[in-house]
């Protein structure tokens, strides 16, 4: 079962992004890569951050970078 903490860890955000991306690619066969992965990772991380507290410039910057890391982790795991 997912918890709010899962959205805010690299492993959790990566797993959630990979699962949603897999579903999306089944529905949308020509999903643009790697943009789709990056957008999904950002959405997952930002949702987790919004569910845990308020938005500050510092928090948004950290979430943005965390989304990039999660997207890179998903891309790396899918390329092997």
The DSSP helix count reads 4
Q: What structural category do the secondary elements indicate? A: mainly alpha
Mean pLDDT level: 88
Order of H and E elements: HHHH
Envelope shape: globular
The helix content, as a percent range, equals over 70%
* Rounded radius of gyration (Å): 12 Å
Strand content: under 5%
Which regions contain 5 or more consecutive residues with pLDDT less than 50? none
Biggest sheet architecture: none
Distance between the termini: 27 Å
Question: What is the tally of beta strands?
Answer: 0
Topology:
Layout lengths: L3 H4 L2 H18 L7 H18 L4 H22 L2
Write out key terms for the chains shown.
single chain, 80 residues, mainly alpha, 4 helices, 0% strand, globular
Walk me through what this model shows.
The longest helix has 22 residues, at 57-78. This protein has helices spanning 4-7, 10-27, 35-52, 57-78. The chain is built from four helices and no strands. The mean pLDDT is 88. By secondary structure, it is mainly alpha-helical. 78% of the residues lie in helices and 0% in strands.
